[in-house]
Amino acid sequence: MDEAERQSRRNAVAAIGTLSVAFGKEMPDEQIDIYIDALHDIPGEQLAQAVKTIIGTERFFPAVATIRQTALVDPSRLSAEEAWGFISRRIQSGGRMAGTRGLTDDTKRSVDACGGWPALCESTNPTGDRITFTKAYNAVTTRNDRTATNWKLGKGLRRAIASIGRGDI
């Protein structure tokens, strides 16, 4: 175990300890080990921010999945309603000429779910468009969060894959 992994495990221990004190929960050593193994790959700053958010929003001690999901959500990402408000203002100010240039991929995919930019500009059903857009935006961002969680490779796994590529195994 290298120094970076030791530090990431210390960060996970600190996060678990903070949550344990905040929620008044004592954990057996085996459960602590499970939480450390599941959380040590998350950068310390993200994990600490997730702990603060969870303390302010959750009523009970969180599951590993809740901590990971909170840590991996980009705080600068707009909510579905905020993104819809931005799109509505852009349509009002620029119309068809504004287009989707410069929008995030999540927002572009959500606009496409509504039939594309021209269809949104010509629509006579803004309520239906808002519903479609927000559902699509939530689905796209949830899918992105899941893939970010599932495809994050640990250093040990990366090393093992690299050694296979070199023919070491």
Could you characterize the architecture of this molecule?
20% of the residues are buried. This protein folds into 2 domains: 3-73, no CATH class; 80-148, no CATH class. The protein has 9 helices and no strands. The model has no long low-confidence stretch (mean pLDDT 87). The chain has 169 residues and is mainly alpha-helical.
Mean residue pLDDT:
87
Envelope shape: elongated
Q: Which class do the helix and strand fractions yield?
A: mainly alpha
Number of strands: 0
Q: How many individual domains? A: 2
Evaluate the radius of gyration.
21 Å
Order of helices and strands: HHHHHHHHH
Number of helices in the DSSP assignment: 9
Please tag this protein with its features.
mainly alpha, 72% helix, 2 domains, 169 residues
Summarize the structure.
This protein is mainly alpha-helical and 169 residues long. The protein has helices spanning 3-23, 29-39, 44-57, 64-72, 80-94, 105-113, 117-122, 126-150, 155-166.
